[in-house]
């Protein structure tokens, strides 16, 4: 009888797990002091890159970059802006996907696509815009690939009354206009990179006028422009401070999972530079690192076309093509690696954040790489059965669930995944990958 009741309860459980805005986390989590080993120090081999960073990064961000304090109070104004852009995001139980995997796993999605910009990237652009303003800046600069980070910066800057100058990788600028228009709607100013506005960009364009650009080049453009014109540069992934800001997602998720009496056995997500995954996973890792015993499994996936996760070397490398930034010890395929044109623009970065790399090297975080075809199959399936279109980047996490489901025993493992973004502005990419237009023509002929 009780069993039947439990079963009925299970069937009528809710899909969405909310967190009230008044219960939102009030501190960020910084993992650096808990890893039990210092992060290998950045190397300034030009003798100029530290000075450069001191000039272009907001003071508040620089301080956090080297802090090993575990809990960092979130200033009131940042918490207010988080609420404004739709945080806390809900967790959704993906019951149809569970059914697809034979009900062998419970699947919870932390829905970062529900923020107004459609991804987790607003979690860091808001704090950075806040610290840039506190530092007296009038504008911020940054780089963007597909435009997720750029749109998050454009909105955050406007919310704090700042201008934004966004250097967008040239192929994306030309080929993916919709996020560019979104940046424009949010008040951002967008320039193709390599850019005529910087000495670095002009140098590249002189040698190679048709350069398609790359994220590494766009970083150099954005840093140089901030330096020359007195703005502040904001960083979209990889660095410690950025990962700290992104922890808001995991801190919320912990409260949400606790509120329904669930504890994830697996925490999974996709990796561009690593902040999306770290943002969800680090707050869960905290208690385990502090207790000296890892009990959950942490699995992060990149793109097999840029196989830094599984084939990268753990060594010092430049975070940018222009080599103006200090070298960091990271899993990397090389700062001059030219990635093939994949649709998950946010995964094209050549290296993994230093703290995540360190956790990978210690075996605490497991690495996977999946190719586009394998990942996109799930993007389409998820859209069809769950009714929500994932970003191409996000879809690279689904094969991890398949792996877990295949190995699952009688006790259903609980999986928590970072659903890093929404794919509504990536439909053209999906259309190309799946050949929707050709299929449509074929249908017309019949
Ligand atoms: C940027 C992006 C990623 C990758 O994020 P990192 O923090 O660089 O690892 C993943 N998903 C979406 C939707 C993104 O926009």
TrEMBL record:
Role summary: The beta subunit is responsible for the synthesis of L-tryptophan from indole and L-serine.
Entry's family note: Belongs to the TrpB family.
Catalysed conversion reaction: (1S,2R)-1-C-(indol-3-yl)glycerol 3-phosphate + L-serine = D-glyceraldehyde 3-phosphate + L-tryptophan + H2O
Gene3D superfamilies: 3.40.50.1100
Involved pathway(s): Amino-acid biosynthesis; L-tryptophan biosynthesis; L-tryptophan from chorismate: step 5/5
Protein name: Tryptophan synthase beta chain
NCBIfam families linked: PRK12391.1, trpB_rel
Organism: Candidatus Micrarchaeum acidiphilum ARMAN-2
Pfam families registered for this protein in UniProt: PALP (PF00291)
PANTHER family referenced in this protein's UniProt entry, alphabetically: TRYPTOPHAN SYNTHASE, TRYPTOPHAN SYNTHASE-RELATED
UniProt keyword list: Amino-acid biosynthesis, Aromatic amino acid biosynthesis, Lyase, Pyridoxal phosphate, Tryptophan biosynthesis
Assembly: Tetramer of two alpha and two beta chains.
GO CC terms: cytoplasm
Record PTM N6-(pyridoxal phosphate)lysine, positions in chain: 121
Keyword check for Lyase: yes
InterPro entries (UniProt xref): Trp_synth_b-like, Trp_synth_beta/beta-like, TrpB-like_PALP, TrpB-like_PALP_sf
Domain Tryptophan synthase beta chain-like PALP, first and last residues per copy: 85-417
One MF term in the entry's GO annotations: tryptophan synthase activity
């Amino acid at each position: 009888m009780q069993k039947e009741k439990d079963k009925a309860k299970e069937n009528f459980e809710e899909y969405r797990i909310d967190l009230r805005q008044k219960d939102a986390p009030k501190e960020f989590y910084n993992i650096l002091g808990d890893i039990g080993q210092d992060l290998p120090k950045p190397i300034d081999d030009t003798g100029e890159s530290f000075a450069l960073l001191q000039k272009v990064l907001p003071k508040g961000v620089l301080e956090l970059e080297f802090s090993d304090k575990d809990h960092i109070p979130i200033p009131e104004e940042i918490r207010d802006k988080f609420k404004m852009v739709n945080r806390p995001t809900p967790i959704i139980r993906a019951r149809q996907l569970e059914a697809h995997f034979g009900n062998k796993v419970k699947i919870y999605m932390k829905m970062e696509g529900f923020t107004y910009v459609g991804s987790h990237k607003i979690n860091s652009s808001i704090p950075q815009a806040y610290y840039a303003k506190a530092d007296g800046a009038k504008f911020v600069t940054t780089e963007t690939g597909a435009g997720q980070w750029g749109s998050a910066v454009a909105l955050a800057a406007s919310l704090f009354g700042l201008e934004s100058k966004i250097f967008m990788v040239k192929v994306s600028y030309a080929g993916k206009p919709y996020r560019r228009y979104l940046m424009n709607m949010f008040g951002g100013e967008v320039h193709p990179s390599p850019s005529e506005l910087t000495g670095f960009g002009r140098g590249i364009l002189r040698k190679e006028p048709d350069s398609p650009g790359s994220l590494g080049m766009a970083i150099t453009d954005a840093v140089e422009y901030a330096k020359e014109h007195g703005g502040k540069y904001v960083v979209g992934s990889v660095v410690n401070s950025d990962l700290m800001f992104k922890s808001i997602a995991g801190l919320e998720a912990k409260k949400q999972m606790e509120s329904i009496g669930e504890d994830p056995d697996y925490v999974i997500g996709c990796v561009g530079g690593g902040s999306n995954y770290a943002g969800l996973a680090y707050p869960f890792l905290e208690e385990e690192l502090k207790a000296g015993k890892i009990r959950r499994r942490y699995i992060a996936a990149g793109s097999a076309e840029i196989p830094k996760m599984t084939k990268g070397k753990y060594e010092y490398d430049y975070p940018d093509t222009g080599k103006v930034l200090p070298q960091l010890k990271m899993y990397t395929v090389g700062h001059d690696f030219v990635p093939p044109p994949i649709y998950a623009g946010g995964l094209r970065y050549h290296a993994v954040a230093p703290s995540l790399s360190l956790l990978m090297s210690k075996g605490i975080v497991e690495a996977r790489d999946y190719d586009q075809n394998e990942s996109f199959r799930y993007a389409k399936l998820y859209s069809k059965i769950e009714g929500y279109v994932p970003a191409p980047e996000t879809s690279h996490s689904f094969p991890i669930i398949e792996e877990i489901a295949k190995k699952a025993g009688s006790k259903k493992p609980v999986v928590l995944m970072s659903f890093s973004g929404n794919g509504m502005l990536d439909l053209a990419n999906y259309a190309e990958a799946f050949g929707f237009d050709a299929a449509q023509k074929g249908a017309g002929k019949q």
